[in-house]
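Sample intake sheet
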Amino acid sequence: MNFTDLQIIEPILEALKAEGYTHPTPIQQQAIPILLNRKDLLGCAQTGTGKTAAFAVPILQHIFQSNLPLKGKRKIKALVITPTRELAIQIADSFTSYGKFTGIKNTVIFGGVKQGSQTRALNQGVDILIATPGRLLDLIQQGYVTLRDIQYFVLDEADQMLDMGFIHDIRKIIAKLPSKRQSLFFSATMPPAIVELSRKILGHHPEKISVKPEQATAEKVEQAVYFVSKKNKPKLLIHLLQTNPVDSVLVFSRTKHGANKIVKILDKADIKSEAIHGNKSQIARQKALGNFKNGLTKVLIATDIAARGIDVEELSLVVNYDLPNISETYVHRIGRTGRAKASGIAISFCASDERAYLRDIQKLINQKIPIIEKHPFLSDDHEKEPSTNSKPTRSIQRHQSSNSNKGGGNNNRQKGNQNYSRRRR
């Protein structure tokens, strides 16, 4: 199927073509026809499945076909709510790209920065507003934003909204929306609290679609796990980065303090890295992310919340320095390196107290993650873990022999290293 088969108007098709898009992803194939028919939608899909285009294209088409006013201030017709600043910026960029031949204007508002440039953009008039909950309510209270003209409402990453404590803000926003609107609700998981929230946002009979994260993971991302003690995780990370240079590595830490600590450890090993997390200022986060996307920084350390919205083309590798205690989070993490039709590589460090997390992850994705049997920092209790029949793929093994012949290493290193990296073409 091509985008031309989805009854998308020519200005948007032209923009999609300019972005290099020809074939819609599964969620786009399912969602776009439903939304063009103006039906409410409940979508279960992870980041990286093409979800943004799935809701942005129909919204742009509806607004374009509604005849934009030639004079007077534009009124906000579409509102997209998302949990993080990075994701809000990414979504706004997508609306700009897909709508560049339509004349439709969007802007993005978020906290952590001064509001001056944001309020100036609002005063000039926009058709689409992308916002984080706190800043939106702030500017509504100040009189810069009104939601009375909203015709299209999107709540994205709803599960993260709840995890970050935004539920009360979301309820306040919902109460200010017109009852007559088209509503879209997206979440990577559907626990009872999310289902209950969706019922308050959507109509009585919304359309439902689901793109299972475990399917995307199993098909597109090559995975491997290293059993290593907590104290040896820094040594293993340094060893891998030094012996297997790659263009871009995203390292996940469970905590903000842990992310900062990893940066300091790598710095002592002369490996430049930067961290992004909630305690960093917006300017610092954007600078670090910009350096990573531009190749100035090859290693980025991130917490899960801050990583939402990171969209780097051809990301070489994802490292789970700490395994997440929520299995779905693992899928989100490794999805950073397997976006759209791209494949990717993800490796995980697993300490003895993280074995239960690993089992839960393997149950979710319905596969055994291959174990790297030989590396210099193998944990003492590795033998306690039942062996699996699965083996690392060729891409992960590729440079094992060449690395084992390199000088300057200890005997363990020379006995054999499993390499995780590959050059992207």
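Comment: The CA atoms of residues 132 and 210 lie 25 Å apart. The two ends are 25 Å apart (CA to CA).
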